TrEMBL record:
InterPro entries: C-N_Hydrolase, C-N_Hydrolase_sf, Nit1/2_C-N_Hydrolase. It catalyses: 2-oxosuccinamate + H2O = oxaloacetate + NH4(+); 2-oxoglutaramate + H2O = 2-oxoglutarate + NH4(+). It comes from Monopterus albus (Swamp eel). This is omega-amidase. Pfam families: CN_hydrolase. GO terms for biological process: asparagine metabolic process; glutamine metabolic process; oxaloacetate metabolic process. The lineage of its organism: Eukaryota, Metazoa, Chordata, Craniata, Vertebrata. Residues 9-264 form the CN hydrolase domain. GO terms for molecular function: omega-amidase activity. Residues 1-23 form the signal peptide. One of its GO terms (cellular component) is mitochondrion. It is an enzyme of class 3 (hydrolase).
Length: 285
């Protein structure tokens, strides 16, 4: 279950501007994956809806089956550059339903898993705001973890990050890195984006957390907060992007040794009272 090969590795987080021309954005994403790999990255993370503008009106127009055009690009890029590629997310069509799906590819180009966003964002504050993702999307029904030679990774998408239980389960099942492609807005972004990452990472679970957001584009119909980041298990926060249209951030050094040190210094993992309380998964899919 646990990943035993504790090697150093480089993670790249790609924050890119997403516009309405899918093909251009796909080729840009591909170039950035190459750039990340050329700089030594072994695991590369793309943003939520990196091939499509965000919003219910776009999902069906941009949706693809998997495999399809976007996942073919991701597969080719992963294989060509020998990286684990976490394909942010794309709108997926399957059996007449739409999903917000994150496909993950290995260095051989094979798809390792597909995480469909589990928690859909539905709010209804009478007289103020009504936003129902579930009117256009269907939820996934499984946890999503994968092994790399470097560490074990748990995958969530955007709103999934707000659910502490999911991150706890991933950590308990041996994940040392959690990745969340996400697109918070200009209200929830400053309020919670970094706070949630630090909570899921250093406070609750002592794992690394990486997020990738589309770049901030003030002219878009949905303006994403940006601020793709990596948080280490001691709460250091690396936010590299302040709305710049494309950029890469890197995490190197000896991340897993550091993780072990932190867990020794603050042994919340070992000192949990599993005899009094526990978080369990009902269904792993
Ligand atoms: C961001 O989303 C929250 C929650 O849905 C909403 O209350 C807020 O008005 C949104 N902010 C912007 C700037 O769209
Ligand atoms: C990313 O953006 C930061 C801040 O603008 C800049 O200092 C850095 O050089 C950029 N990195 C890359 C790889 O472009
Ligand atoms: C990041 C990036 O290259 N985005 C491109 C997506 O496609 C539009 C439309 O052609 C371009 O203007 C963007 O530069």
């Amino acid at each position: 279950m646990h990943c035993l090969l504790l090697l150093e590795f480089r993670l790249a987080v790609i924050q890119l501007q997403v516009t309405s021309v899918k093909a251009d954005n796909l080729s840009r994403a591909r170039r950035l994956v190459k750039e990340a790999a050329d700089q030594g990255s072994k695991v590369v993370l793309l943003p939520e809806f990196f091939n499509s503008p965000y919003g219910p009106s776009f999902f069906s127009a941009y949706a693809e089956r998997i495999p399809g055009e976007s996942t073919q690009m991701l597969s080719d890029a992963a294989k060509e550059h020998k990286v684990y590629l976490v394909g942010g997310s794309i709108p997926e069509e399957d059996g007449g339903k739409l999903y917000n799906s994150c496909p993950v590819f290995g260095p051989d180009g094979d798809m390792i898993l597909k995480h469909r966003k589990i928690h859909l964002f539905d709010i209804d504050v009478p007289g103020k705001i009504r936003f129902q993702e579930s009117e256009s999307l269907s939820p996934g029904n499984s946890l999503s973890m994968f092994e790399t030679p470097f560490c074990k990774v748990g995958v969530g998408i955007c709103y999934d990050m707000r659910f502490a239980e999911l991150a706890q389960l991933y950590a308990r099942k041996g994940c040392q890195l959690l990745v969340y492609p996400g697109a918070f807005n200009l209200t929830t972004g400053p309020a919670h984006w970094e706070l949630l990452q630090r909570g899921r990472s250093a406070v609750d679970n002592q794992v690394y957390v990486a997020t990738a957001s589309p770049a901030r584009d003030e002219t878009a119909s949905y303006v994403a907060w940006g601020h793709s980041s990596v948080v280490n298990p001691c709460c250091y926060h690396y936010s590299v992007y302040l709305g710049s249209p494309l950029n890469l951030s890197y995490l190197s050094s000896s991340p897993l040794q550091y993780l072990a040190d932190i867990r020794q210094q603050l042994p919340i993992t070992a000192q949990r009272r599993n005899d009094l309380y526990t978080v369990t998964s009902v269904q792993e899919g």
